């Protein structure tokens, strides 16, 4: 295969191993137009408990907007590398374009474009508690695509709204007030991502995204009809595909909900496998709180019998640490929530 591709080859434990696929069970599909909130909350609660993943239909985001996003994303990734590199992200500004070949920060076989819901937000420049420095995060937009920015901003606005709805339903399913966490999002660093996974000549050796958990509160994702997203399900002993459903959004809980719920819900591990023939696009929205927020289990879910399973952590410092690790290609050691776990 030659040196050209060596940066993408996964270590043996992370290779896709297609023989371990399980098709016995399916990620729940939830109809958000259901009129009984009680039923809806109960279904979402069950899905969160069992999977940490579900799909939503009748979510209210117009189909024609999603088609426009798809068209603009395709045009964007077709731009010359020179154009795309004008929007390159760096260690201080985590928004914009990156790929593994030109920035060599990951083994992921994909290209990415990120932008924030709130342009110009400030995040800590490092995870050092004594460093009070801040970095301003500015969105970059391709000048040669005149409608790109407007369409993407409309999309992220709609997904932000949908995320609050999901946040409310998930909070209710934990027995918490629907608006329990709403104040955390005043200076949110939520972002929308466009993912492009080119066809891969050696799909059994590489991954679109390696196994990971999302560090956010929750993720809402549109995927095209190629397929490839999989959830780890230890109970059934392997990786379960998240079947593409036209017009549906995939929702998954992130690490912050795991901590807030005091481990009642889990941030599920997932990955993206590749296809040798077909490219794949996906468009996640990651709901993040403001950087000043201390993440800790909800006090309503903690008691003497059921003590807090995590120490509180400052989200901005944690995020700075993760972003830095991305750029220095460190392994995730020290960057995962299990480091805040209180051991019995
Ligand atoms: C991610 C991710 C899934 C997908 O970007 O964190 O898991 O379907 N993406 O592309
Ligand atoms: Ni993810």
Automatic annotation (TrEMBL):
All copies of domain Fe2OG dioxygenase, residue ranges: 188-289
GO terms, molecular function: dioxygenase activity; metal ion binding
Spans through the membrane: none
Keyword presence, Iron: yes
InterPro entries, per the entry: DIOX_N, IPNS-like_FE2OG_OXY, IPNS-like_sf, Oxoglu/Fe-dep_dioxygenase_dom
Keywords, alphabetical: Iron, Metal-binding, Oxidoreductase
Keyword Electron transport: no
Homology family: Belongs to the iron/ascorbate-dependent oxidoreductase family.
Name used for this protein in its record: Fe2OG dioxygenase domain-containing protein
Organism this protein belongs to: Pisum sativum
């Amino acid at each position: 295969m030659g040196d050209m591709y060596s940066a993408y080859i996964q270590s043996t434990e992370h290779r896709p191993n297609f023989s371990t696929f399980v098709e016995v069970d399916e990620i729940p599909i939830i109809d958000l137009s259901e009129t009984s909130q009680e039923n809806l909350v109960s279904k979402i609660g069950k899905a969160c408990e069992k999977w940490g993943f579900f799909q939503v239909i009748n979510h209210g985001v117009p189909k024609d907007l999603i088609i426009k996003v798809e068209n603009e994303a395709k045009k964007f990734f077709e731009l010359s590398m020179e154009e795309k590199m004008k929007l390159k992200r760096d260690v201080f500004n985590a928004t914009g374009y990156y790929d593994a070949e030109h920035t060599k920060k990951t083994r992921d076989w994909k290209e990415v474009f990120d932008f924030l819901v709130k342009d110009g937000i400030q995040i800590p420049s490092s995870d050092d508690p004594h460093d009070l420095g801040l970095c301003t995060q500015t969105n970059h937009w391709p000048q040669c695509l005149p409608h790109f920015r407007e369409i993407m901003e409309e999309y992220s606005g709609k997904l932000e709204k949908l995320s609050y709805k999901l946040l409310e339903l998930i909070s209710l399913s934990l027995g918490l007030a629907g608006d329990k966490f709403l104040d955390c999002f005043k200076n949110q660093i939520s972002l929308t991502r466009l993912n492009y996974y080119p066809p891969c000549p050696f799909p059994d050796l590489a991954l679109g995204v390696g196994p990971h958990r999302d560090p956010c509160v929750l993720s809402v994702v549109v995927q095209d009809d190629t397929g490839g997203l999989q959830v780890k399900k230890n109970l059934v002993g392997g990786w379960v595909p998240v079947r593409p459903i036209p017009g549906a959004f995939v929702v998954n809980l992130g690490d912050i909900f795991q901590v807030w719920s005091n481990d009642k819900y889990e941030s599920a591990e997932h990955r993206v496998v590749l296809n040798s023939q077909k490219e794949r696009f996906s468009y996640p929205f990651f709901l993040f709180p403001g950087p000043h927020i201390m993440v800790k289990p909800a006090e309503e879910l903690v008691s003497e019998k059921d003590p807090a399973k995590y120490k509180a952590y400052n989200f901005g410092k944690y995020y700075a640490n993760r972003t830095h690790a991305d750029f220095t290609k460190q392994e995730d050691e020290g960057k995962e929530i299990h480091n805040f776990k209180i051991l019995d």
